[in-house]
Amino acid sequence: MMKRIVILGTSSSMPTKSRNHPGIFIKFNKKGILLDCGENIQRQLRIMKISPTDIDYILITHWHGDHILGLPGIFQSLSSMNYNKKLNIIIPKENIENLKKIIEGFIIPINFDINIIEAREGLIVDEEDFQIYGIKTKHSTISYSYYIIEKDYIKLDKDLLNKYNIKNKELIKKLKEGKEIEINGKTISYKDVGYIKRGIKITYITDTIFFDKLIEFARDSTILISESTYFFQPDLAKKNMHMDFLEVREIFNRSNSKILLLTHFSQRYEEEMENIRKDIEEKNENIYILDDFDEIYIYKDKIELKLKRKEIIYKYDEKTGDVLRLN
User: Fold this and answer.
1) Choosing from 36, 66, 192, 244, which is the catalytic residue?
2) Are residue 131 and residue 275 in the same domain, yes or no?
3) Same domain, 189 and 280
4) Of 21, 27, 83, 326, which sits with the fewest C-beta atoms within 10 Å of its C-beta?
């Protein structure tokens, strides 16, 4: 099933004339997931033809304004739009009362179910076809990063099923469950007629200093989206509890991640961003600087990056999870 990633904001604490506060919408199979909810997110969603009612999960990394100021507007809109689903909000335990105060302070008439889920290290959500994991990061306040991973599953080849004359639905079901079956005295396993499809992994790391556990957390990401608040100023990044591009690149290179998308930029780089982009993208394979309204589409056999200045296509191998740039 196709996945769509929509970049709603790429600035950090201060929005600029071209970059909104942080926010990323992911259509992950049938669920809509919003990563952070900065100021003006509703407008960004509208521009990209995404309704607030498409949101099933909101993942809040931490309680700084650039990551949560859009929440009152989202709540207000959902209350007036006959939102008939349960809204799941993953948030650090320490910020749950703050969330409740937002609802009370803005006198929002909540008429839908809200399921508050405490962020934690390890498995947080276990849906039928995907899971959400968290890691506690190192920032100036309690903060978490997340990844969403599709569950692996057995995929059967129709031609191979026909070759072995396997048409019985119960036998096919057993193969999909990883069980062996017997046909004309011959034992058949899923490996004879199919393969394990590797699940897509999308990792989101933001507002933290570099530490080694982030490498394992990002391990084998199909798409790694990470803050790069600073460029070639690692000492300043550490002082302000953020990461520099050089540190993010180390996570990417050491984690066997496939594509790195950079976001959450300090406004200090606004005027020189194009030169930074050119330098980084020319010297580093599979690393890109994001803009607001960029989109990424993940299909069965390809990944399309629809970036502001170019479109890039990757061949995707669902057996191994490897990618190969085609243009």
Assistant:
1) 66
2) yes
3) no
4) 326
Whether 15 has a pLDDT exceeding 90, the answer reads yes
- Same domain, yes or no, for 272 and 172? no
Tell me, yes or no, whether 166 and 27 share the same domain. no
Q: Confirm whether residue 139 is marked as ligand binding.
A: yes
- Which residues make Cβ contacts (< 8 Å) with residue 38, sequence separation at least 6? 8, 9, 15, 20, 21, 22, 23, 65, 66, 67, 68, 69, 70
Could you confirm whether 66 is annotated as catalytic?
yes
| % of the chain beyond a pLDDT of 70 | 100
Q: What is the mean pLDDT of the chain?
A: 96
The annotation status of 264 as a binding-site residue, yes or no, is: yes
How confident is the model at residue 183, as a pLDDT? 87
Q: Which residue has the tokens 């930074």?
A: 276
- Domain hosting residue 158, numbered range: 154-194
Per-residue confidence (pLDDT) for residue 132, from 0 to 100: 99
pLDDT average, residue stretch 36-49: 97
Judgement on whether residues 107 and 166 belong to the same structural domain of the protein: no
Residue 297 has pLDDT above 90, yes or no: yes
Same domain for 141 and 163, yes or no, is: no
Q: Domain check: are 174 and 234 in the same one? A: no
pLDDT confidence bin for 164, thresholds 50/70/90: confident
Within 13 A of 39's CA, how many CA atoms are on the CB side? 12
Confidence of residue 1 (pLDDT cuts 50, 70, 90): confident
Is 207 a known ligand-binding residue? Answer: yes
Instruction: Give the tokens for residue 141.
Output: 């306040």
Residues 25 and 32: beta-carbon distance below 8 Å? yes
The 10s digit of each residue's pLDDT in 172-229 is 899 999 999 998 888 999 999 999 999 999 999 999 999 999 999 999 999 999 999 9
CA distances from residue 30 to 21, 241, 250, 312 in whole angstroms, order as listed: 26, 35, 33, 25
* Closest C-alpha among 140, 96, 145, 139 to residue 117: 96
Provide the CATH number for the domain around residue 19. 3.60.15.10
Single out the residue in 194, 218, 252 at which a domain terminates: 194
Tokens of 69: 């100021």
